[in-house]
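Aminodeoxychorismate lyase
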Amino acid sequence: MSIAFLNNEYLPLHEARISPMDRGFLFGDGIYEVIPTHEGKPVGLSAHFKRMADGLSAINIPNPFDAAQWQDIVTTLTQRNAAALDTPYIGIYLHVSRGVEPQRHHTYGNDIKPTVFGYGFAMPSPPETRCEDVKGLHVALNNDLRWQRCHIKSTSLLGNVMHYQQGIEEGKSETILINQNGEVTEAASCNVFAVINNQIVTPPLDHQLLPGITRQLVIDSLGKESVIVRERAITRQELLSAEEVWLTSSSKEITPVLSIDGHQIADGQPGKVWERCLNIYNRYKFIL
């Protein structure tokens, strides 16, 4: 049974109750984070806290806690859920909505108390680090139909949900998105990397994609061992003809893509560059 945190109280998840007048329920008016923990150790904790603070500031919600208080919540949820769920791999979901108002209005007041919710859930174990042991992904490809503030980790995820669901209904694991210029933005729930002409590349950060924490940890960890990642536009054709394609996220870490819309990537197997980079990432992910 998962343990939750709701407005300064820890309780079983099934007992958590939030008002239907909460703007998070009515409008998706909030920010969230998902923090992976492995055997009690969080991955990218300070980076997750910074992104959450930036997101709250971007939509004008006061941050209800400082970093030390957030860390205490994460630590407590990790410990309690590891025991309750009997697994060393716990994901911590944190959610801050603008809060409850007596009437539903598109506009909001400045004196609303934010609703803070969090809970722990069992995560899959980290991906295997050898090409022959890992199962890669088969993904869909689609035009990006989402809003123009994808850099904010908003709880308003309908666009992402629809793209992700379309891929699932096509028998795929994810959906990579292409903008109006024919360039890759990101996947429905992941960032995208590719190996093109022996160079590791990933789309540059802007309003079209989320600044993924795992994305940044990959770039920073590879930089520790002088492996360069080039942040530049990737065209649809470059993606399909790449030597390797990877997706990164808190739950997937770095996972190879074997086919896109039925088009096989290279030889259809996880690549040696991916194998090397995942091993480097694993050496640094808890200390960056």
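thats it. The mean pLDDT is 97. Residues 113 and 223 are 41 Å apart (CA to CA). bye
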